[in-house]
Specification:
With about 350 residues, the protein is α/β, with parallel strands linked by helices. The chain contains 17 helices and 11 strands. The longest helix is centred in the first third of the chain and has 14 residues, at about 45-60. The relative contact order is 0.15.
């Protein structure tokens, strides 16, 4: 059975689950069209997640996906690293009060329980791997399970615990890298290389993510061995996306040569490698990028939140995390439906 049939979707298009950028309305729009809409829920408190799932179910009777970030209880609950001096100095110089939450991230076990109590058609996971027992429990509720991998060994691990598919995320992808093994960071693989190496060692269906912007890109990753394509950056500048106008305008400016479309893998915003547009923050603090003293994810992510909130309030793109993939020069200001129609027409 093809993955299209397994997921019960019409077109080989998954809208990437970008936490903080996706909305129930975006997910439902993509699903109603015949793709797989998704909601990035790794930063969402459990009761809100329940409400958002209910909202999507009210907007579509088609399959959709919820994505969670796999973090240990220790990772999500502890601030055991001090705020970097350079970041503290930035706050002082700019008169910003750096407020830290009680915990750096949401409790993963509580979020996962939401998916047991309010089952969804598809659940995907990033930043780590769940247990075979958790996979089986989700599947017992009728939920298809998709893992995320930046390296063939991560994909193999998902295959061995019974996942229905693996999303292989190439180095071209915008936002956070979804892998967790050291091998995925030391030599990030481009998407086509990642697909071919992964296809050689596992048999379960693959979904391709990273730099996919056009119908031609979708056909290319299918020819390489993936069944479906996951697009993120292409959706960021569409009408149903939830990012702020300053972020959206920076992406459009990059596509019209009004600012550089250069992207960079960085840990400076969150402590975990993520790809975004180059801006002043990444330039000014580049000297700290290669040090081993950056707080880990999600601690640094919580520490930079006040800076990012201040930047958003002041329409300052130079201190926002402008997550985008290497295909950012191809983004367009259009409706979500127009993007989907354009992609399908050319498939």
């Amino acid at each position: 059975m093809s993955l299209l049939d397994t997921l019960n979707i019409t077109y080989p298009i998954i809208q990437a689950p970008m936490a903080g950028a996706t909305t129930p309305e975006l997910a439902a729009t993509v699903s109603n069209f015949g793709g797989l809409g998704s909601l990035g829920s790794g930063m969402t408190v459990p009761n809100v997640l329940t409400s958002q799932i209910d909202t999507i179910k009210s907007l579509t009777d088609r399959p959709f996906m919820i994505n969670l970030m796999v973090l240990s209880e220790h990772e999500s609950s502890n601030f055991d690293t001090a705020m970097p001096l350079w970041l503290n100095q930035y706050y002082q110089e700019n008169g910003i009060v750096a407020e830290l939450p009680e915990r750096p991230a949401q409790n993963f076990a509580e979020q996962l329980k939401v998916l047991y109590d309010n089952p969804v058609p598809v659940a995907s996971f990033t930043f780590g791997i769940i247990s075979a027992e958790q996979v089986q429990r989700l599947q017992s509720f009728g939920t298809r399970v998709i893992g995320t991998a930046n390296h063939p060994l991560e994909a193999k691990a998902w295959s061995e615990i019974g996942a229905d598919a693996v999303c292989v995320q190439g180095a071209e992808a915008g936002g956070h890298r979804g892998g967790w093994l050291p091998q995925s960071e030391t030599d990030p693989l481009g998407l086509l290389t990642l697909i071919s190496q992964t296809r050689a060692c596992i048999e379960i269906p693959l979904i391709a993510a990273g730099g996919v912007m056009t119908a031609q890109d979708i056909k290319a990753v299918q020819a390489a061995g993936a069944e479906l394509a996951q697009l993120g950056t292409a959706f960021l500048t569409t009408d149903q996306c939830g990012i702020n106008d300053t972020y959206k305008q920076a992406l459009l400016d990059a596509s019209h040569s009004r600012r550089s479309s250069e992207t960079r893998l960085t840990r400076l915003f969150s402590g975990k490698l993520a790809r975004g547009l180059l801006n002043d923050y990444l330039r000014d603090f580049a000297q700290f990028e290669s040090t081993d003293v950056l707080p880990p994810y999600p601690q640094l992510n919580a520490m930079t939140k006040s800076m990012r909130a201040h930047a958003a309030h002041n329409l300052d793109a130079e201190h926002l995390s402008l997550w985008a993939g290497q295909g950012v020069a191809l983004v367009k200001q259009e409706s979500t439906l127009d993007l989907l129609g354009r992609l399908v027409k050319q498939l």
